[in-house]
């Protein structure tokens, strides 16, 4: 008999084991049994052939309508054409030099056919499809050996291993399987009326009816949610048990001096979040908090206050940013906000002042040496940097707080690498300007406390967004360039965002491209900048900005734009986050359908940051009513980042939401969908919290299952996507 941990080779043999390992990473019986059906075909109910689309990899259940073999004229050989039907539509199957298959595929025979849908002479077809004949009803022995159940499971498959071959492997595994111990506490299982783990695995692959299959799927989906919540909550408990240096608020210090010189009032939301952070910092265990907020909601000021709180207690703060442009922007912003308070040890600096320094991968040797010395000596209370902060040469005197900006750009291992530079476990604040629905936050960031900023600072003006349908209304794009010129004439500035750095290969004319009459060309910074400078925007100062430029050039360009020496910035998405130029009022995003919903929301957040209204124009060649166009219409229809985040997540694969796929690992989430399964996730977290609080040691099987997940290296680094 086999267990879930038994090697696959003991059940399906060497050759099949190798294919399963190469395709899916499966090595155990448990891995294979967690390869779940996508759907079920009902014996006797044929597939809907009319619904098949060109390019689809399909498995269909159909009946042979005709089979004709003929010789080829142009070359040696013959072709067998088999027509199959579902009763209302037909599909052609072609086999070259395999006339013997005509004996298999007799008229009236039913079979499963698998292949890629192609089109030849206007007709849909499957070329050389794999197939499995359905045994006749009166052939009892064959029916039992082949497809015993009424419901035929359809699995994620490949040309090397069609669905029915996977089904045969799973039948072998189930036949050899001993009773599976159930780690889910009986009280939890009975609370929801779930089947046992053994029953669920059998019923999902070989259901008596669709109701039992659904109950099995619910049980296994709950298992994923429950084990993930146990993992996150146990991590959270471990973090709470770590000892950290408490950094309580101190009166008369640097933070008080900063607050007294702030030229604006914090919003109610900023004050609330600041109090939550101050409470965390005052504890003898490390803070682990996620700060999420709308674009422009004032997260940077909140984070800066937390840094100053730590500096008042003799510690240092490190801010990890995903790009050099953003890191340099943070440096300028913080130096501007602090003023003399950022000039510690310098002439004119306050007695309470500290220093702010920058460490990036491309800075020159002299600058890097100075920055490293300031960090190591403690003279720089705030050290801002990119991944370069993780380098071995970077050291701190007393790293007390780590702030990670745009958390989704970093893996947990990078966060931990920075933590290792602290003498004691540091406090951690991670920030994201991509609003996260509650269930996603609970699922992806379940080991962190969550703070949310929803309101915008006083005086911020609304941003109006419009879609420019370039193919239908080419004149609208010309009007966009005129609008930019008008804004510049009124003393404002603009961004033009392109998806590419380098020019494309289209043979369309420059004028066609500028007027939006090409559907093939994708806008690029290197092409668009000169075209506009010499044409529609020749009356204004235009400059490019992209990731292939040197750090010095990027920084000087951004500084010139901030100083109003440049009117229009033609840029890639390097300006997506953190860039704060209040004077910029217009943004045109070329080929906007090439960007995701959250990215578009982030990009348009670069305008309307001052006292003048913002305008964002989404130029696209997407067809009306297409999914891409509907996505752009959704962005134009609301500035509510939380609503847009739900739309974004609904259109993305689950792996993009929950992180990198962990094929073959027991922590891989195969069934759970964070939006669809919201209520289940909330129930699972509540149950997991009760277990953690009462002590998981009371449930030995559950504790062992959790330990196995914790030991999995992939589970240690669930990428916070």
UniProtKB/TrEMBL annotation:
The lineage of its organism: unclassified sequences, metagenomes, ecological metagenomes. Residues 476-650 form the Helicase C-terminal domain. It is an enzyme of class 5 (isomerase). GO terms for biological process: DNA recombination; DNA repair. It comes from freshwater metagenome. Residues 280-453 form the Helicase ATP-binding domain. Its EC number is 5.6.2.4. CDD domains: DEXHc_RecG, RecG_wedge_OBF. Belongs to the helicase family. RecG subfamily. Keywords: ATP-binding, DNA damage, DNA recombination, DNA repair, DNA-binding, Helicase, Hydrolase, Isomerase, Nucleotide-binding. It holds the Pfam family Helicase_C. One of its GO terms (molecular function) is ATP binding. This is ATP-dependent DNA helicase RecG.
């Amino acid at each position: 008999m086999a267990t879930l941990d038994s090697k696959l080779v003991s059940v399906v043999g060497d050759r099949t084991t190798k294919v399963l390992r190469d395709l899916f990473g499966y090595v155990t019986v448990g891995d294979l049994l967690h390869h779940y059906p996508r759907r079920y075909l009902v014996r006797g109910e044929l597939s809907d052939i009319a619904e098949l689309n060109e390019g689809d990899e399909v498995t269909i259940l159909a009946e042979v309508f005709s089979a004709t073999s003929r010789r080829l004229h142009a070359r040696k050989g013959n072709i067998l054409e088999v027509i199959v039907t579902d009763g209302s539509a037909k599909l052609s199957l072609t086999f070259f030099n395999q006339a013997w298959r005509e004996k298999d595929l007799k008229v009236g025979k039913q079979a499963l056919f698998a292949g890629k849908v192609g089109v030849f002479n206007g007709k849909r077809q499957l070329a050389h499809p794999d197939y499995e004949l359905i045994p006749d009803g009166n052939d009892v022995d064959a029916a039992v050996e082949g497809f015993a159940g009424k419901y035929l499971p359809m699995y994620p498959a490949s040309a090397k291993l069609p669905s029915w071959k996977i089904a045969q492997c799973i039948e072998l595994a189930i036949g050899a399987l001993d009773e599976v111990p159930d780690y889910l506490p009986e009280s939890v299982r009975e609370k929801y009326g779930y089947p046992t783990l053994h029953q669920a695995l059998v019923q999902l692959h070989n259901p008596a009816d669709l109701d039992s299959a659904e109950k099995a799927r619910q049980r296994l989906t709950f298992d994923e949610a429950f084990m993930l919540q146990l993992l996150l909550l146990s991590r959270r408990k471990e973090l709470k048990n770590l000892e950290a240096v408490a950094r309580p608020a101190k009166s008369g210090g640097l933070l008080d001096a900063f607050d007294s010189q702030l030229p604006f009032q914090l919003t109610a939301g900023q004050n609330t979040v600041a109090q939550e952070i101050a409470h965390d910092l005052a504890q003898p265990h490390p803070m682990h908090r996620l700060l999420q907020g709308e674009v422009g909601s004032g997260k940077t000021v909140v984070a800066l206050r937390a840094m100053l709180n730590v500096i008042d207690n003799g510690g240092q703060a490190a801010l990890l940013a995903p790009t050099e442009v953003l890191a340099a922007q943070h440096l300028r912003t913080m130096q501007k906000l602090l003023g003399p308070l950022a000039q510690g040890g310098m002439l004119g600096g306050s007695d309470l002042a500290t220093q702010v320094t920058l460490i990036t991968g491309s800075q020159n040797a002299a600058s890097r040496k100075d920055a490293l010395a300031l960090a190591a000596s403690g003279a720089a209370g705030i050290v801002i940097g990119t991944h370069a902060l993780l380098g071995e040469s970077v050291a701190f005197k007393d790293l007390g707080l780590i702030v990670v900006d745009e958390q989704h750009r970093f893996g947990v291992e990078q966060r931990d690498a920075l933590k290792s530079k602290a003498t004691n476990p540091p406090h951690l604040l991670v920030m994201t300007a991509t609003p996260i629905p509650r269930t996603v936050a609970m699922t992806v960031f379940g080991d962190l406390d969550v703070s949310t900023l929803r309101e915008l600072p006083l005086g911020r003006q609304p941003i109006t967004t419009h879609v420019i349908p370039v193919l239908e209304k080419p004149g609208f794009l010309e009007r966009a360039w005129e609008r930019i010129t008008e804004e510049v004439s009124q003393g404002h500035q603009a961004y033009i965002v392109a998806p590419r750095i380098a020019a494309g290969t289209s043979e369309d004319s420059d004028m066609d491209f500028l007027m939006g009459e090409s559907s093939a060309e994708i806008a690029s910074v290197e092409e668009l900048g000169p075209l506009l400078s010499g044409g529609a925007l020749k009356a204004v100062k235009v400059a490019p900005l992209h990731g292939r430029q040197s750090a010095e050039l990027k920084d000087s360009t951004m500084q010139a734009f901030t100083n109003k020496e440049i009117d229009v910035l033609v840029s890639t998405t390097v300006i997506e986050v953190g860039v704060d130029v209040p004077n910029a009022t217009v943004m045109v995003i070329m080929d906007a359908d090439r960007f995701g919903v959250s990215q578009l929301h982030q990009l348009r957040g670069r305008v309307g940051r001052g006292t003048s209204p913002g305008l964002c124009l989404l130029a696209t060649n997407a067809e009306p009513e297409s999914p891409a166009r509907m996505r752009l219409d959704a962005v134009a229809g609301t500035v509510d980042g939380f609503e847009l985040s739900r739309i974004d997540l609904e259109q993305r694969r689950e792996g993009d939401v929950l992180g990198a796929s962990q094929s073959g690992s027991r922590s891989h989430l195969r069934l759970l969908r964070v939006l669809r399964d919201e209520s289940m996730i909330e129930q699972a977290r509540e149950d997991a919290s009760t277990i953690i609080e009462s002590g998981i040691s009371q449930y030995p099987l559950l504790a062992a299952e959790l330990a196995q997940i914790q030991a999995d290296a992939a589970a240690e680094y669930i990428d916070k996507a």
